[in-house]
Amino acid sequence: xxxxxxxxxxxxxxxxxxxxxxxxxxxxxxxxxxxxxxxxxxxxxxxxxxxxxxxxxxxxxxxxxxxxxxxxxxxxxxxxxxxxxxxxxxxxxxxxxxxxxxxxxxxxxxxxxxxxxxxxxxxxxxxxxxxxxxxxxxxxxxxxxxxxxxxxxxxxxxxxxxxxxxxxxxxxxxxxxxxxxxxxxxxxxxxxxxxxxxxxxxxxxxxxxxxxxxxxxxxxxxxxxxxxxxxxxxxxxxxxxxxxxxxxxxxxxxxxxxxxxxxxxxxxxxxxxxxxxxxxxxxxxxxxxxxxxxxxxxxxxxxxxxxxxxxxxxxxxxxxxxxxxxxxxxxxxxxxxxxxxxxxxxxxxxxxxxxxxxxxxxxxxxxxxxxxxxxxxxxxxxxxxxxxxxxxxxxxxxx
Length: 399
Prior knowledge:
By secondary structure, the chain is of the alpha/beta class. The chain has helices at about 5-20, 60-75, 80-85, 90-100, 115-125, 145-150, 165-175, 195-205, 230, 260-270, 270-275, 280-295, 295-315, 340-350, 380-395; strands spanning about 35-40, 45, 110-115, 135-140, 155-160, 180-185, 210-215, 240-245, 255-260, 325, 330-335, 355, 360, 370-375.
């Protein structure tokens, strides 16, 4: 009993250290549906922080499909996919996603998982299960890719952000039996795109897999919203594709699309897939409605509106000290620098009813703390103009 206070004190010292470096995070409680206008901690806010890029999270058609799915399949799945939790809703969704990716991946098959984090762990621990494997990881990859590489038995080497020449040198020098290049498509804190055509050409030349995390591209990029592979017009059996379904698709979960043999390996060997309860089938049912919207006329209109909002924000900002990152996507980071300054800026916006998060290390590099503005097709031009005006005034006021 005497040791217990010492254990707690050790944790408290770690928490105090985070606070001293302005790295403490806090939870805010949303009392309403994900949308630009939200009730947060009991207060009305205009949110520029969700990844609901097409505004489908509160779309009435998707909500009705979720209700219908729950009525048909119940509230939960009851077991893992390989026991009894794999419903017809899961199978239909996987078949449709495989069809969507067939133009880009030979003999494509898809697998639905509970989260994108889990999907990335599944891919890298299965493909990199042998010590004779090497993972070549992009420097700015998402934490889930980093953790997946750590959990794999493969060796890991990191190549600089967007540096195709450095990656080529690493691949040339590698004697690994299995080579796995892994990258985000749209980098979540910068909003820029990976040079996927050049990366794929390297992978084909060196007999490597190219694992693409398209969390922030699926639904938004490409003429039909089918993601980064459609955007760049890529096709190869070397591709292993991960798309999340809780961002632009507005619901939840994620999927992996790859050659059928790769997917079968994941079914047989991937611990994150085998040893977890399947996501509620109602979600998979609702996602069919999301795909209908994404691939149809309404989806095209929403993507066009989103692109216009991005252009409107960029044209309205008049920043002198802060730096708007070079991004053509819905992710529009404003780099401020110090943790304290970023926190103060976010707090000032919050006082004005604008919800824009401050992003600090370790999510971004030290000295690059930022406001991460994310736009949604559900935003209006007037709302974006209001944000731009607030940011311009705030930067001048803090000079």
